Amino acid sequence: MAMTRNNLLTITIALLFFSLASGHSHRVVPPETVAEDEFPPQPHAGGVGGWEHPFYFGQRSFQTLLRSKEGFMKLLPSFTSRSWLFRGIENYRFAFLKMAPRTFVQPHHPDADVVFVVLQGKGVAMFLTQEEKETFHIEKGHVVRMPAGTTHYVANTGDDEPLRLAAIFVPVNIPGSFQVFFPAAAEFQQSYFDGFSSKVLSASFNVSEELLGRFLRGPQTGRKAIQTISPEEIKELRKHVSSEKHKHQGRLWSPFDIHSQEPVYSNEFGRFYEAHPERFRQLRDLGISVTCINMTQGSIFVPHFSSKATFIVFVESGCARFEMAKPHIGSGQWQQQQQEGPQWGGQGQEQQWGEQEMTGKIHRVVSQVCKGELFVIPASHPVAIITQDQNFTAVGFGINAHNSSRTFLAGQGNILSKLDTAEKRLTFGVGKEVSERVFTSQDYSYFVPTHQRRQQKPSFQSIFNYAGY
Ligand SMILES: *[C@@H]1O[C@H](CO)[C@@H](O)[C@H](O)[C@H]1NC(C)=O
Ligand SMILES: *[C@@H]1O[C@H](CO)[C@@H](O)[C@H](O)[C@H]1NC(C)=O
Ligand SMILES: *[C@@H]1O[C@H](CO)[C@@H](O)[C@H](O)[C@H]1NC(C)=O
Ligand SMILES: *[C@@H]1O[C@H](CO)[C@@H](O)[C@H](O)[C@H]1NC(C)=O
């Protein structure tokens, strides 16, 4: 998770530009009727019929930092620079790190709490505070929470696999913006000791200014924020790795495997794992949940919503189609803003949006989301995920996940099937027979096959016909 000051400056400028430039390209617009075709081809940029909405983030949305043969870090601009709809998650930043085999990210500390998930590979992570120093083995599926201000390094100890991490940063100084502090200078980064006068440092360390100069501005040739390390150095780093027993003491930064518990939803069409803040001490104070979804081709994660958590979903492999219902928001002031050219993001605009009103209209937000791309699902917004000819895996970070629960709107056990006959009639205005059929014909819960997949399975023909499709 390293980043240089120069690069940060670049991002700031790029962000400023982005927020100025992104004007009218992220409108949310009324849905177009989806074609008869079950899965009409989607424009890659998301949105039915070429319309765009702000919930999809393609690869080009990322700012690339630190690109070198040793690795790179990609950072998503602050969510509010994309749309005011993300004010609720303005203090969260998403980042992605990839390290080549046998590399090392120099020790540093961010002014942000961090939660990261290992997507691929294995390595070693060291955490250092005034009180403690601990080194852990990390590997695919591990979730790590790092408190703000923790000095740490990460090393890819693998011989041939990259180490890939997806992370959420929660800045503690400036909402939606964080910095990184390095003790040692390297190619594009200065040491934080450069922030002090020689006299102060010389007295603080009780060494001559000359020695200090040699130490701080020593041989920097070839030193980088991410650098290659030798097999011997890897062996040395590994020496300090805490034992398994130690690991389970449940310190704030102890890694845990998200797959170590049973999936919360699982069948032949998909599996859903969730590390909930109520369950994992590491995530409790941040109120962030970490989820992992695996779907097989031709499956649907049926329409559902999270009561309080907004999910930032990053695709790890394959492609899937996200469909989401989003209420249209109306407001006199908002529309005026739009006519004058909307101003997305930026500081101090809170007042300008005024009260938002319900219009009763629903937008259908649709995106094809593939590996390396991201989709944001706001709290309480019903969403479905559909796979076609590829298996699909993604990790999700749930923001405000404390006491958030998931409600399913289809599949066996969906909440609407719990309405009794009179309630269904009052709600939907249809008789018992029709509503029974609609709400009880699906035998599967959570993950169900698509029509295409069902048709390949004779055993489901009867249900299929009965439902009148
Ligand atoms: C500073 O260093 C000198 C020489 O190494 C030593 O004699 C002295 O005690 C040190 N003073 C302090 C305050 O550390
Ligand atoms: C999910 O899918 C990925 C890639 O397809 C696979 O590597 C991983 O082991 C799967 N996770 C689980 C828990 O099955
Ligand atoms: C998808 O996953 C299933 C089971 O996990 C596997 O049998 C199948 O070969 C995979 N399909 C593809 C296209 O990778
Ligand atoms: C979650 O719910 C429990 C019990 O209903 C309550 O005691 C607790 O304060 C809630 N936590 C948060 C963060 O809202």
Number of strands: 26
Span of the ends, CA to CA: 51 Å
Which molecules are bound in this entry? Answer: 2-acetamido-2-deoxy-beta-D-glucopyranose
The total of helices stands at 13
Question: What percent of the residues sit in helical stretches (DSSP H or I)?
Answer: 10-25%
Q: What best-fitting shape do the alpha-carbon axes yield?
A: elongated
Oligomeric state of the chains in view: single chain
Low-pLDDT runs: 1-51, 332-353, 458-469
Based on secondary structure, the structural category is alpha+beta
- Percent range for β-strand residues: 25-35%
Radius of gyration: 25 Å
**What is the residue-averaged pLDDT?**
81
What does the largest sheet look like? 7 strands, antiparallel
- Cross-sheet strand order for the largest sheet: 1-22-19-24-17-16-15
Structure commentary:
The radius of gyration is 25 Å and the shape is elongated. Helix content is about 20%, strand content about 35%. It contains 13 helices and 26 strands. A 7-stranded antiparallel β-sheet has the order 1-22-19-24-17-16-15, with no helix packed on it. Strands 2-3-4-11-6-9-14 form a 7-stranded antiparallel β-sheet, covered by helices on one side. It has about 475 residues and is of the alpha+beta class. The site of one 2-acetamido-2-deoxy-beta-D-glucopyranose has 4 residues, from loops.
